[in-house]
Write a structure and sequence with these properties.
Layout (H helix, E strand, L loop, with lengths): L1 H15 L11 E6 L3 H5 L1 H9 L3 E6 L8 E2 L2 E2 L3 E5 L12 H9 L3 E5 L6 H9 L2 E3 L6 E4 L15 E3 L1 E2 L3 H4 L8 E3 L4 E3 L6 E6 L4 E4 L17 E7 L5 E5 L7 H5 L16 H12 L5 E11 L9 E2 L3 E11 L4 E3 L6 E6 L1 E7 L1 E2 L4 E7 L5 E9 L7 E10 L14 H23 L2
Parallel strand pairs: 1-2, 1-5, 5-6, 6-16, 18-26
Antiparallel strand pairs: 3-4, 7-12, 8-14, 9-11, 10-13, 13-15, 15-16, 17-19, 19-20, 19-24, 21-22, 21-25, 23-24, 25-26
Helix pairs in contact: 3-8
Length: 433
Amino acid sequence: MSKLIFIFLAFIPLLCTSFTPERPSDRRVLVLLDDFAIKSSHSLFFNSLKSRGFDLHFHLADDPKIALQRYGQYLYDALILFSPTVERFGGSIDAAAILDFVDSGHDLIVAADSNASDLIREIATECGVDFDEDLAAMVVDHSGYAVSATEGDHTLIASDDFIKSDVILGSKKIEAPVLFQGIGHSLNPTNRLVLKALSASPSAFSANPKSKLTSPPSLTGSSISLVSVIQARNNARILVSGSLSMFSNRFFRSGVQKAGSPTKHEKSGNEQFFTELSKWVFHERGHLKALQLQHHKVGEASEPAIYRINDDLEFSVEIFEWSGTSWEPYVADDVQVQFYMMSPYVLKTLSTNGKGRYFTSFKVPDVYGVFQFKVEYEKLGYTSLSLSKQIPVRPFRHNEYERFIPAAYPYYGAAFSMMAGFFIFTAVHLYNK
């Protein structure tokens, strides 16, 4: 009995730090490595996660004891794959298990390189990212290379073509270019969920740097993505990088000067880039929640069970954004509500008080049936919101119509004139000799 109590007490910290709707940032992170040397060579990146409260669990990718779930419950909130050469994961993990992990709403970081295995390529492809099919290919740029690159070998690239999104990369501008050395990839054109977080320059191409080009490269210019991000429909987030070296201490600390630029930066933008990007991937930024969806008639406070056509109503909802430590009011001018039955009968942009509350008022359409209040909000970098509440709308009862409807006055006049004419005709017919 005492042993069971000890096991329960050991699991309490695990349960308290796990992912919850009230605290959406990932806490328990499984890190799979090709070699434990990566733990020290990439320690700056790992330490930045630990300093923000993440609990990292390091294992070799082929460790036979690793598992993502036990007894139907996931043991981790996020997964980092720093094992580009792994041919087969250990334990119960495989490509299908990782994709199920993402389908369950968990987050993923995948780092590849020029030696990326078919397993890593398969996972990336399922996420909407296609690495160059040439196994020896690397991204080469004879114009945008880093000045410190080996003469003639321009595979060390200094890129500053970032995604234009403050919610993904933070509001502070990344001044220094990011160092990249690895394999390029393209985005699946049928997948609208994947975005280029860092792109190659127009002069870049993907090819084997040790052999002579005999045919046009399959990937060229700005169509080459160096780092991509995906937000799935279930709001799980994925980062795919074509370079494991990008996360290394050496690249974090290196000075950088882009070819053709007179400015030399004492430190590359890698650390700031991946710190900000990891905040987004792990839901420390751009995570929204909505609550208190309310509606009622104008002048009333309680929510009715049914509306009547042409009623005036008020609608409100509260939206907050997770800042990494607390929920803060979300302020925007593009949140809309639909009053919906088969199609929107009313579409209104909501006003806000700047404290997270959004509101509007409108008249119920002169159509009865079962309607829905729908708030469907999608914005680049933010988790999507989809809320709905059903409400029936009835017509007027027989005793609720106006006694005399102004629009019917001509008909009233016609009826009474007919009656008067009939009376006059009858009188004339009876008494006329």
